[in-house]
Give the backbone structure.
Amino acid sequence: MKILEIKHNEKQYLDLLLLADEQESMIDRYLSRGTMYVLKDNGTKALCVVTDEGNGILEIKNIAVYPNYQKKGYGRQLIEFITNKYKESYTILQVGTGDSPLTIPFYEKCGFIKSHSIKNFFTDNYNHPIVECGKQLIDMIYLRKNI
């Protein structure tokens, strides 16, 4: 297994990016200012995009694992990689996600705790309803952990 930084042609991974953020115009808001990492293990399995949010905060803007490879530790490996790579430069790793039973428990198992939320983020910023596990996502829930 290896994790590579992708510096050019990030949109070649659009199919994977869209698994975590299903509107391309939203991906375009952060992709050019973020750093992308791709996890390969006999082929691409997962990716992560992080951005510098200032004040010692690094944010995971997108983390996705192909469905066939979910629940095999690849997402956790990416978070551990990001934590180790950036622990000397940042004090907080944060992630924003919908209030979903698929994502919140994953981040909590990775050591994140709920921090704050942005009301109506999904309804204000996406051109269609975002539904996960039969529930429409409305507010953005932020989770943080010290690194």
Observations:
- Helices lie at 14-20, 24-31, 74-86, 104-109, 121-125.
- The longest strand covers residues 44-52.
